[in-house]
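Summary of Year 1 activities. Much of the first year was spent building the evaluation harness for sequence design. The harness presents a backbone, in tokenized form, and records the residue chosen at every position. We chose the following record to illustrate the format because it has been used consistently in internal testing since the harness was completed.
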């Protein structure tokens, strides 16, 4: 009888050890068995994240430069760009991290050069160039976000694009209104419109 109990205990211990070894072999080191692999974003989803992050960061940095303008409309618009795009950038960063995407930490060469160019301007010359650039950027951004809201693969990223599109469209309208106001007064007529 003792031999039977000993064999049963030995068998149970062997099965237990084998099951533990199997579980370890099938589960990556440090991961819980119930965890899922992170979501992989499509190339087009990641491209949108890159464009939106760099564009948003540019709007923040250019908006900070605009805060020094003597034109109250430009100054107010710059403040709004800093506030709204900082919030959108934070939302995008959090979303990207949960969806397995990456967010660029710096401006690309094109936006760095544009920011530096704006920083080198003063007075009415800055106001004209800044608002001209904001009209151009927001016209393009509205198209990019509208397209993304329809075509992105990731549903959460798609929702972010749709929600942010409303903000971008309000910025677009503001930029056009300021440009028209400046043109009507003849004070700082934007070029290239």
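For this record, the design step produced the sequence shown next.
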């Amino acid at each position: 009888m003792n031999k039977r109990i000993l064999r049963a205990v030995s068998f149970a211990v062997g099965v237990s050890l084998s099951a533990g070894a199997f579980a370890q072999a099938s589960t990556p080191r440090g991961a819980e068995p119930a965890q899922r692999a992170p979501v992989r974003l499509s190339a087009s989803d990641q491209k949108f994240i890159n464009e939106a992050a760099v564009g948003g960061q540019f709007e923040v940095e250019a908006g900070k430069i605009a805060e020094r303008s003597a034109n109250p409309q430009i100054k107010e618009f710059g403040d709004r760009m800093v506030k709204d795009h900082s919030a959108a950038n934070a939302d995008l960063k959090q979303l990207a991290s949960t969806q397995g995407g990456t967010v660029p930490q710096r401006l690309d060469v094109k936006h760095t050069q544009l920011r530096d160019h704006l920083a080198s301007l003063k007075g009415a010359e800055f106001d004209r160039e800044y608002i001209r650039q904001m009209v151009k950027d927001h016209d393009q951004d509205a198209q990019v976000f509208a397209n993304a809201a329809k075509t992105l693969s990731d549903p959460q990223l798609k929702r972010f694009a749709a929600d942010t599109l409303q903000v971008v469209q309000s910025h677009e309208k503001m930029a056009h209104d300021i440009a028209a106001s400046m043109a009507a007064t003849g004070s700082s007529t934007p070029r290239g419109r």
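The two ends are 97 Å apart (CA to CA). Quantitative recovery figures across the full test set are reported in Table 2.
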